[in-house]
Amino acid sequence: MKFKKLLALVLTAALGIGCFAVPEKAALAAGSGLDQDEMSKVILIVKNKLEIGDEYTEFNYDFWEDGSEAYYSFNWNTEDYSKYIGASCDGEGRLTNVYSGNNESKRSLPDKTADEMLPEAMEWLAKIAPEASGHVEKTRSNCSYYNSSYSYTFVRLENGIQMPDNYVQLSVSYKTGELVSANVNWLYDVKIPNAKNLIGKDAAKEKIGTQVKMELQYMLGWETEENGGYYTGRYSGMKEKVFLAYIPSDTYVAVNAKTGKIYQERTYWDRGYDKETAMEEDTADAKAANGASFNATLTEAEIAKIEDLDNIITRDEAIALIRNNDALLIDENLNTFTANLTNDNDKYYWSVSLRDARPADYENGDSYRAYAYAKVAAEDGRIVSFSASVKGLYDYDEDEADNIKLKYKKKDCKKIFEAFAKATDPDKFAGVKLASSNPTEAIRYDYVSNKYTYAGYSFNYTRYYKDIPFYANGINGSVDRITGKIFNYYSNWTDAELPNPKKVIGEEKAFDAYMSYDGFNLVYEIVTDNDKDEQGIYRRSNSVRLVYSTNIFPNYVDAFSGKQLNYSGQEYVPVNNSYSYDDIAGTKYEREITLLAGMGMGVAGSKFRPDDVITKSEFAELAKLLGRYGVSEETGLEGDTKLDRQNAAKEIVTMLGLKKIAELDIYKGTYQDSDKISEGYEGYVALAGALGLIDVKTGETFKPAEGLTRGEAAFMLFAAMKLQIEE
Length: 727
What we know:
alpha+beta
């Protein structure tokens, strides 16, 4: 009997009488691990959890195994493919992923808050992941009006303590209450340690202090510049910025919450995690205007850039500087040369490429073709970087490799490289220290000794200023042991000013500041142990331990203030997408303010002040938080002056792209005080009223010069968004 027919019979019986009987067990595919009975059971488990009805007549599946674990991916569609449901699960029918959709659904804004929808989300959680129900706490919720749903994140909670590695994320339609998607990450059948007799957070911090050292370092970031309300990036004119920060020597350190034992890893291979000890502890990111009618002219900025060319070396000079440099490894067959001029932070560089253009002769084993690249400062011819290919392990035959003579030892290579670096960048090389050196470019492998022979040595030098390392800056490169030539050279250096370290806070205060940031918590964490079985195959097992753990990001401590810094050297401010106010209950626009807050749109603080007049800059900030609107130039929303109602109407209509319509001479007085509306604003006010963007009905008093309250602004922006989303 064909499987589809068999499966249809099984499902029909199951759905009809609430239980099922299956024919004699038969493998679906020899050696695949698939089994008709088991798969039938899993399908029914999943369909019951997701409440999938008979309208989903089309079905497909995938199957895979991970060790001894089986996993399924199921897909259901209605006959016309207008609705679909997908689900992934393990061999027990425990769901890992769910998604569903309706091709006829339209975007909409919520008429319920996330908190009002939470009971329905909890009901779905109990259905799709019953093992997790009662063992989670909600950590956040988000609104997605693109698929008309609220998304909830629930983190596992045991003994009142979070287990961040386990979580359930699900989305529920705020229109229908149906499940939109889900992601279940849960570790089943594992013992959870109790939370008795803990050493305490202070003792854990002391333990971590014996392991973590705070190293003072120079870091490279970028200055932020605001341009028309948007933050520009490196390629939009930002400048390099150097800042001083203390960095922890270990980003992950955990302390056993009961014994005080220190851990520095969570994944073990072979040697691993002491399970017996754990049991004793109670285990557990120019439209090309080529038209002839357009008469282009050079701007002053363009002319200035062109004139810069008088002060730089030519293309041929740049190529010759590389080809004729006796210190560099330049293969004799490099016979094709190109060079491009680039501008980086107002400095010009030649990017030189040298290649061996001969076709490879694979038939006779002659396939190696050399290449080299270089970056040359166009103003003075200084070599900024150089990289050349070196014959490697697979480019030699055995006889060639055996006859290679390595003429230069490590100390010789170091001497050669330092001489080149001093000649190329004398001032910079005076400010670096050797950080590491390693053999590189394997050319031979000895099967007896299980060792490689290397054709070169690499050297890495770190920049220091006042004995403080600056790891983002330095000089590094490699020397060929056969020829004594340099085949890699790179200088990474910023001209930005380095802060004086005279008044830094010191390592002890830096450590205290670091441990005060969010991310040092008592948590249950999953430990993964990988051991080989009798066949030499790694088998993974998981266990849970209770620890005080550092999971602090970003982990930069300002060397002068102790504040937490981001990776650009600015004070780190967590993004707040959750707003709650204690002064809106019972106010006229409570609903709009609450719905916006539930969508991650609002103002900082616990007070919304709905009856206060909103300023121009406050309105602009709230509009920016909506994420899809700009600010018109005509009105201008800078400053702390009040925003009156007629200007608010003009602004919101312009934001919606309806300026031309608003300026048509077709509007008559629609409000009792229309005569008080300033010239040029009549159309904007009339259109805003007609579209329901302002809470004043036709025939009422508009009060054009009166200040717009913050509550009215929330109403206006919510209405504008609704108009756009539900168009």
